[in-house]
Amino acid sequence: MRKQILLLFLLVIFFSGNLISIGQSVKPRNARAELVASIDSILQSQVDLDKIPGAVIEIKKGGKLVCRQAYGYAWKYDFNHRQLSPPEKMTTRHLFDIASLTKVIGTTTSVMLLVDRGLIKIEDPVYKYIKAFDTPDKRKITIRHLLTHTAGLYEWYPLYYRSENKQETYRLIGELPLMFPVGEQRRYSDLGFMLLGEIVEIVSGLPLEQFMKQNIFLPLGMKNTTFNPLKSGSFKKIAATSHGNPYEQRMVYDSTLGYKIKEINPLAWNGWRTYTLRGEVNDGNTWYANDGISGAAGLFSTVDDLQKLVDMLMNKGKIRSSQFISSKTINSFLTKDRFNNGLGWMMDPVNSFMKNGPEGTFGHTGFTGTSITVIPQYEISVILLINRQNTGLLSTGEYYNVNPVRQQIFNSLLKYQRQVTTSR
């Protein structure tokens, strides 16, 4: 009897161990399917609940595509918030107004190239290129300060009240007083990246859009990345964004938002767009005061094009066998400063779109609903494009907050990584 019990005990241990092994070996095959199912659930539920009109997502790991999918609609509502009949279905080929992703995809990459070619230095004072900064209070502002949002500039200013074109805008920004001590605090500012765009033009001798096209987009094969996509007439699939600029109007008129500027009379200008934006940049300063082109916003792109630039960064500046940007320059831009961010790129893990990510994680967001997150340690990247503004403002006067959605997706990625790691 004892022998039978002992035999039964040994058999239980044997089969238990094998069941654990079998369970673990299933994980690699199921981890990807579980991730994709999680992404589908998160984004489709947002569409079904009418929280967002649509979205496109692309995830890669180790150079291989894990997920590439479109959800919902590229254009769902008209200017009067009537649903289109039928609404335009979203595809992975749609161009998005990538908003502030312009800062990293276009402008930061441009500065990387100029640094890599020895044409500028990160520690160069801005007054070396823009004479308006050769004043006692602005002389110590460097290119680094502009890239890290520590130059002390206005966080936001309705430039179009005092400017109608790019040159007037550059002049106006140069004349504006500083709002904060230089280098002492991080205050996110579009104006600093507009100045970086001006520096790129001065150093290269080319208009910003031409420099980016010739030196970034064409070499990387980003054929669907451009400013002012309607001008070429060749782009038919473009996701719609806002209905005019209702939130930006609030920024001018509603002092409770904290952007009230004493010399700006809200009634002194009334050039607001009164139609649904599709192929025109949402950002007011870029559209009204910069002809749709600036270092802060204005680029339109597709998920596949954005992935090409992300791949280059993940490959330490390489495109296939050629070195596009040196790994030294890439590393210098993706090194945290004392405010926990890189040059141009965000790296602070408190941000919802990369919350609790491992050291070295970087990314950026765009006001229209776009975001990029890269986890070099896990060889993972996720590009999420949401056209949240087409749903319109909420009753609170705000656009729907997609940060929780970004965080859910990032958490799903971290879970996927844990599953893949423990199954090895």
Number of discrete helical segments: 11
Give the CATH architecture.
3-Layer(aba) Sandwich
Q: Give the low-pLDDT segments.
A: 5-26
CATH-level-4 superfamily name: DD-peptidase/beta-lactamase superfamily
In CATH, the topology is named Beta-lactamase
Please tally the β strands and state the result: 11
The helix/strand series, from N terminus to C terminus, equals HEEEEHHHHHEHHEHEEHEEEH
Which bin fits the share of residues in helices? Answer: 25-40%
Describe the SSE topology.
Blueprint: H1 2-48, E1 54-61, E2 64-77, E3 83-89, E4 96-97, H2 101-116, H3 143-147, H4 166-175, H5 190-204, H6 208-220, E5 226-227, H7 246-253, H8 284-290, E6 299-301, H9 303-314, E7 318-319, E8 322-323, H10 327-333, E9 362-365, E10 370-375, E11 380-386, H11 403-422
Antiparallel strand pairs: 1-2, 1-11, 2-3, 4-6, 5-6, 7-8, 9-10, 10-11
Features:
alpha+beta, six-stranded antiparallel beta sheet, three-stranded antiparallel beta sheet, 11 helices, 38% helix, globular
Q: How would you describe this structure to a colleague?
A:
This protein is of the alpha+beta class and 424 residues long. The chain has one domain (35-422): DD-peptidase/beta-lactamase superfamily (Beta-lactamase), CATH 3.40.710. It has eleven helices and eleven strands. Strands 3-2-1-11-10-9 form a six-stranded antiparallel beta sheet, with helices on both faces. A three-stranded antiparallel beta sheet has the order 4-6-5. Strand 10 and strand 11 (380-386) form a beta hairpin. Helix 1 packs antiparallel against helix 11 (403-422), helix 2 packs parallel to helix 5 and helix 2 (101-116) packs across helix 6. The protein starts with a helix and ends with a helix. Residues 5-26 have low confidence and may be disordered.
